[in-house]
Amino acid sequence: METPGSQSSLHRANLERVVRAVRLAGSLTQAEIARTTGLSAATVSNIVRELKEGGTVEVTPTSAGGRRARSVSLSGDAGIVIGVDFGHSHLRVAVGNLAHQVLAEEAEPLDVDASAAQGFDAAEALVNRLIAATGVDRSKIAGIGLGVPGPLDVESGTLGSTAILPGWTGTRPAEELRGRLGVPVHIDNDANLGALGELVWGAGKGVRDLAYIKVSSGVGAGLVIDGKIYRGPGGTAGEIGHITLDESGPVCRCGNRGCLETFAAARYVLPLLHSSHGGDLSMETVVRLARDGDPGCRRVIADVGRHIGSGVASLCNLLNPSRVVLGGDLAEAGELVLGPIRESVGRYAIPSAARQLSLFPGALGGRAEVLGALALALGEMGDSALLDGSLAGAAPAFT
Fold first, then answer.
1. Exposure pattern of 131-157 as b/e (b: 16+ CB <10 Å)?
2. 223-270 pLDDT, tens per residue?
3. Selection from 369, 386, 380, 385 nearest residue 184 by Cα
4. How many Å apart are CA 186 and CA 288, to the nearest integer?
5. H helices of the chain, where?
6. pTM of the full predicted structure?
């Protein structure tokens, strides 16, 4: 039996530290593992050798700083995680392994007026279809990450009343999906998962603090502080869409007037173009027309950018992030929207905060949230099961 402070318990703790570092990063050189864990290079070398012999990790030649190095990643067959993203009008599912490789991914339309039960039926069917297509062993599923477009009660996992998907208020999506698929499910809102996706795979890779701004049917932000998602005690951190821009402005769905969302979200912006462009518009269409030179669409996108920039300036003054990543369909407008955002940030943010800020369009597009769901599942699973050769009970169930 291992006792606290014993040599065997210390060795076990070091094994878990190395496995966790590699699991969260996807792959690391041995030098990077040493820096991340604080272990000596000799200790890391011995642990990596042991993990490789046990089939837990794979080691491949690489280079770092012009020198030969060895890249360490978890074994491709050590286990899998699943990401599920419910959007305003879509369902997207991805299956990935613990080496951060996406094995399968598929999206399908989701009727925005569908009941929660229909949504869960569709998610269950798509998950089962992708598992069958990849041929992976279901016993290797370490967990599922689930994204929803609305606020969550942290204590109960209940979807809040301002969720964009109608008919879902009061449901407990993680509990429902866990009951259907029989594996641990971890849930977060879509903005937080977009931030995680960009942090691990996209425009935020290697950054310790960033804000991911998602502009769609609503406006939200995922906040990363010191490499971790910041949710706040009630889980509502990042509701940038409800910063007040005009106390006499339009009434927002939250009940206040003049929120940023009423000047930037698709549901408020698209009607501005109905008289000149017709009512059958989407933000994707507006962006495409703007890129093709349409003056009305360009003006609307520039105005939206300036409004978003006001919200970003407030974030800069409060949190001083080093990077802001713009997601959603609007990010495809490139400099047509990024330029006005920078203009507002320069006008309203503290100069030192504005100078330190870098602004990028999201690199993952519509995949950011489902890849963030994979990252959530990877982050929540435990390491003991990997070392013991079994994923049974690897991750605690969401409650």
1. beeeebeeebbbbbbbbbbbbbeeeeb
2. 999 989 999 888 889 999 999 999 999 999 889 999 999 999 998 999
3. 380
4. 35
5. 7-25, 30-37, 41-53, 116-134, 173-181, 190-201, 261-264, 266-269, 274-277, 283-291, 295-319, 335-348, 351-356, 368-380, 384-388
6. 0.86
